[in-house]
Amino acid sequence: MNVKVFHLVKRYGQHFALHVSELRIATGEALGLVGNNGAGKTTFLRLILDLIRPDDGHVLVDGQNVAKETAWKAHVGSYLDESFLLDFLTPDEYFHFVGGVYEMSAAQIEAALARYRTFLPEQAFSRIQPYIRDLSTGNKKKVGLVAAMFTEPHLLVLDEPFANLDPGSQIRLKTLLQHLRQEHGTTMLISSHDLGHVTDFCERITLLDDGQIARDMTTSDATLRELKHYFAATG
Amino acid sequence: MIYVALLRNQWRSFVRSFQGKRLWLIGLGLFPLALYVSLVLVVLGLFFDKIVWVPKEDLGSVGVLNAHLLTLFSGMLVLRFFFQRPPRMEIHPYLHLPLKRTQLVQYFQAASLVSLHNVYPLLFFVPFWARYVLGGPWGSVTAWAWLTSLFVCLLLSHYLNTLIRIALDRYAKVFLIVATAFLGFQLIDQMLGANLVKQASSLLFDSLVRGDLLLLLPLILLTLGALVVSSQALLHNLHTERVAATQRQRALPGVLTFGRSPIGNLIVLEMMMMWRNKRTKQYVLISIGVSTAYTALLLSDYNAIFGNVMAAAVGLFASGVFALNYGQLMFAWESRYFDGLLARKIQLQHMVLAKFMVLMGSCLGLFVLSLPLFFWLAPNLLMLHVAFLFYNAGVTSILMLALAVFNRKRVNSAEGSFFNYQGFSLMHWLWIIPTILPPALLLFFLEATPETAMSFIAMLGLISMLLIWPWSLVLSRFLTRRKYLMAAGFRSVER
Question: Which residue among A17, A198, A205, B114 is least packed, with the fewest CB closer than 10 Å?
Fold first, then answer.
């Protein structure tokens, strides 16, 4: 699934929260979105998912304008924050609800979840489960990330996926994301403050500054150093 | 010093609550209504004996009012329970600051007295007192004592409300038992014609008027007790509620819950949300309580109080109270995860249809629950009950859901209603007026042939129910247009 963004503008009052003239993400590409707090990363992801209305411009996912059509949602997995979780369900119930939305049978859901067993907290597979709202912040995040991934989406949109995860889980998450890309050619749009992970995983980095694209670069050995210099200078 | 700062913050909060609102609409809509209600109360107080039948002998108007004062204060307590914001909501933002909690509680207990619920009764009581008590033969000391007793009773109901809310929050079962006992007592008292409440009321306030001023003492002590206990209860219940992290649930097998059609899945989701969140669950329980106990109370003496509007009110509340109460916040209940729903492949029309079904189902459920009461206490109102089942399922449900699409205030459904009134405003309650108006007018104009009126009411509901598909299309279009605004509103945290 490819993503094209044209003249995307989001204002809050007189302030430009985001102003992106053009951005294209090719099918199968993993794009890392970095930037300081308030740079417009989450706003950008919300615009991609049609959660907020742009003041100008549009987003095309596989040629479909996200604000006008809904068919694209059938192939998109996303997790931005806890507001994506139906927290009064147990993890198992939540996965079955999400799987049902994507027209997966109970057997398909169980099979798809098998891969994520080592990533998810043990409680998510026990007979007696807590509600999602009673899980720790990190475990809630794991449930949200798995719910975004297990339906094998063609486009995956994640906001700060590595934050609040323990080091082991961060490594496992990268492996799971890698599998998803290799097996399904999933396009990925990942926002992160963790420069190490994002440069390690994404072949392209887009740097947002004050709502605008400051840099758009292909990842190389020098990228991490370059980003560190940039943030040291602007921070 | 800290009290001044708190006062300033409360004032700012009050003034800024109007920002972004259509002031002309509030002025046009609410001001005349407030003026009208105030005038009615003042006139009723001044010309009580011209409006209410008063016996010539004994204490006259004062005696009549005295007999009903306890019932009046009980009714006010019920009103407070539904409408009055408890002080704890205002305290919460200060809890992390290095301020003494006792100071905070003292301040907010005092500041909470500035409430409409403590003002509007005075619009009736003070003119009544000036004309009938102060102008009566009992002397000014007695007259002032009588007025003081009413002030004290107002304060008592004010602090009792805080206590009741804590009880509901912390000891829901005890609260339900006490509330059922209270309503049951009133019901039996009314049905048997024993009038114990009336007699107790007369005994207390007539004695005061006759000069037994010592009776003020127990009233004052009781009120002081309520103040102390409610302050202590507030102090010990200031922590943010959390479901114990150790609480675990047996997961329902996935195939049993979400293996249905898209609409079926959404209905199951709504029901699970309703039952597993504290506030929504409280709404279910309160609706059942109102539909049964309150209806029973009204029906037990319906000959005495019934008019067309009251008949319409009983019909509306008996099967439609849940739709009225819960329906207007139907999308807002999902504030916490509304983004998650929008990001998924869920058709908005399915969402609307699922919510329709839930509201319609609630009307049917409450109809069945309250049906035995109509059989038992007022069989001649059975047809009204049936007519309103259709009206509530067809018209009330759709109207409330339409209002829900226009609501964009965040609601935290996981927190108890003592802690949060998020999403609710006076406008929510005022919508009862246009909802009740068509059936009330039909019953009024077709008074001679009530069967015709009820048939019209039922037909109105039935036709609207048959139009569920076009209704859902229209509402899902509204939802499509408003979803960004709603999602933005639901994301912002409102205290």
Answer: B114
Give pLDDT tens digits for B236-274: 877 644 433 334 555 555 445 666 788 998 999 999 898
| A70 has a chain B CB within 8 A of its CB | yes
Cβ within 8 Å, pair A133-B254: no
Give the separation between CA B245 and CA A131, rounded to whole angstroms: 9
Query: If contacts are CB pairs under 8 Å, which of residues 321-360 in chain B contact chain A?
Result: 336-340, 342-347
Amino acid at B491: R
The residue type of B40 is V
Name the residue in chain A with its Cα closest to that of B250.
A128
What is the secondary structure of B197-249 as a DSSP string? HHHHHHHHHHHHHTT-GGGHHHHHHHHHHHHHHHHHHHHHT-SPP---TT--E
From A181, A182, A176, A126, select the one nearest A147 (Cα to Cα). Answer: A176
Whether the CB-CB separation of A132 and A86 falls below 8 Å is answered with yes
* Burial (0-12, 13-18, 19+ Cβ within 10 Å), A221: exposed
Exposed e or buried b per residue across B32-56, where buried means at least 16 C-beta atoms within 10 angstroms of its C-beta: eeeeeeeeebeebbbebeeeeebee
For the stretch B157-211, pLDDT in tens is 999 988 887 777 677 677 777 777 877 787 777 777 778 888 899 899 999 988 8
CB B143 within 8 A of CB B134: yes
Question: Closest Cα to residue B422, out of B336, B317, B308?
Answer: B336
**A115's tokens:** 């891969």
Query: B interface mutation test: which of A45, A47, A51 has the most B CBs within 10 A?
Result: A51
Name the pLDDT band for B426 (thresholds 50, 70, 90). low
Q: In whole numbers, what is the pLDDT of chain A averaged over residues?
A: 90
- Three-state SS for A188? strand
Q: What are phi and psi of B190, to 5 degrees?
A: -75, -40
Q: Is B261 on the interface with A (CB under 8 A)?
A: no
Residue-range domain boundaries for chain B:
33-236, 260-491
State whether B250 and A129 contact (CB < 8 Å). yes
Distances (CA, A) of B226 to B57, B85, B94, B115: 37, 17, 24, 18
User: Which candidate, A195, A227, A185, places its Cα nearest to that of A30?
Assistant: A185
- Cβ–Cβ of B276/A96 closer than 8 Å? no
Cα torsion A85, A87, A88, A92 to 10°: value is 70
Calculate how close chain B gets to A115, using CA atoms only, in Å.
Answer: 18
Distance CA B475, CA B397 (A): 12
| pLDDT at residue B93, as a whole number | 67
Is B347 strand, coil or helix?
coil
- How big, in percent rounded to 5, are the helix, strand and coil portions of chain A? 40, 25, 35
B277 touches chain A (CB under 8 A): yes
Domain covering A3-234 in this structure, CATH number: 3.40.50.300
| Whole-complex ipTM | 0.71
Q: Which residues of B touch A51 (CB under 8 A)?
A: 339, 342-343, 484, 487
Residue among A181, A177, A150, A176 nearest A1 (CA): A181
A203 touches chain B (CB under 8 A): no
B252 touches chain A (CB under 8 A): yes
Tens-digit pLDDT profile for residues B38-65: 999 999 999 988 888 777 767 788 888 9
